[in-house]
Amino acid sequence: MTLSRFRFDRQVTLAVVITVAIQAAGGLMWAGGASARIDELQRRVEGQGETAERLARLEEQVAATRVTLERLERRLETGEL
Question: For the CA atoms of the chain, what is the radius of gyration?
């Protein structure tokens, strides 16, 4: 098995090479921007852990308050208070 040397065909112009290089650079820039956006989203999600926990606690407190309120309403309706 012999290694063939890389060479340009005479039909490949400098403009084609420059165009491919510019497209590759644009693709790399786009990928870098996408990576930065993904990193920012990951930081936001990590920061929302505390908020989600606090929200869960508040939901439980609201549910307990609703039960207490319903119990008081029943007692008022029956005249126990």
Answer: 33
Provide DSSP, 27-72: HHHHHHHHHHHHHHHHHHHHHHHHHHHHHHHHHHHHHHHHHHHHHH
Give pLDDT, residue 38: 95
What is the value of pTM for the model shown? 0.45
State residue 4's pLDDT score: 64
How far is 40 from 72, CA to CA, in rounded Å?
48
Q: What span, in angstroms and rounded, lies between the C-alpha atoms of 8 and 37? A: 38
Instruction: Locate the domains of the chain by residue range.
Output: 29-81
Residue 15 is predicted with a pLDDT of 87
